[in-house]
Amino acid sequence: MASNKSLLILPGDGIGPEAMTEVRRIVDWMGDRRAVKFDVDEDLVGGSSIDKHGIPITDEVVDKAQNVDAVLLGAVGGPKWDNLDFSIKPERGLLRLRKDLELFANLRPAICFDALVEASSLKPELVAGLDIMIVRELTGGVYFGEPRGIEDLGGGVRRGINTQVYTTPEIHRVARVAFELAQKRDGRVTSSEKANVMESGLLWREEVTKIGQEEFPDVELSHMYADNAAMQLVRAPKQFDVIVTDNLFGDILSDCAAMLTGSLGMLPSASLGGVDEHGRRKALYEPVHGSAPDIAGENKANPIATILSYAMALRYSFDMSDEADLVEKAVQNVLASGVRTGDIMAEGMTQVSTTEMGDAILKELDNLNA
Ligand code: IPM
Ligand code: MG
Fold first, then answer.
1. Into which CATH architecture does domain 1-105+264-370 fall?
2. What is the CATH number of domain 131-260?
3. Which of the ligands is closest to the CA of residue 309?
4. pLDDT tens track for 51-89
5. Running DSSP on this structure, what letter comes out for residue 220?
């Protein structure tokens, strides 16, 4: 069975484990009904790792992550671990995975499902049919730049420091991912930075332009300051196809884009590394939402973002677009039938638990596969 596809599941904290239980059922379904077997290993990350090992991720888990075809992560963090030192907070586990696996390109699609148009806080006509792809740089910028820290300047004065820094290769590789995606979509890239105030932003703009002109003349490139991009996202979101931006702006703009679709509980993401000599690329898939500690353990969470993250893994890591389509179609049909978890509940719909949402999606998979 050495040729099996390998998957490392890291459920993490809060609603992560509940959502991941539903994914495991779909993974099993793939094995039973589509004869696609995965070797699944499961381990700890975030607070759950802190509780057992004192650190948010162990070397052993990072090692496992380096050696599987894809990592699927639930969510990390919660109030229980909020007051820990920065260096061992739950989030550090996730950041270390991104950094050690060099997952520099974070794909965050913001798609508005027809059935959920009403759940958006924007007017239906602004979001109906919305399909944006945000490509966020994930291993550079202010998240990892040095120097960083909090200094004591004496006399009761302290100073906090972070550094925004990008090199040309870092910009080139993420720009290429964005251009390649645009070629398979509507052929347009909007690059976003603050070139009006930041040198790193100016460099970003110049280098993205260069890659566009030299390698992707067929893609239409435009530039937009990040503050304007935030504004445009809520003013007229459908003007965008692919947005490429740095780590920090990408964090902010992707939350904003996510909410356009009606619920953070719906959105998956893929974090991809470079392609190695065997044509393989390291990859981690996770929902955009956090660990939602307020509803954790209550069987209320929406598992769809995590399920769609698994669908993204099928598409990008395993080249199984038929199966990915199947999962996405099942989710769409279930939503169209009026089944809703609490976060996307609307008048006249049927509210269900996490498990029941999983049941409904599995049943629909059976129907579609019949
Ligand atoms: C995200 C999250 C993370 C980030 C946190 C949990 C470290 O907000 O994936 O968007 O800031 O990158
Ligand atoms: Mg974020």
1. 3-Layer(aba) Sandwich (3.40)
2. 3.40.718.10
3. 1
4. 999 999 999 999 999 999 999 999 999 999 999 988 899
5. E
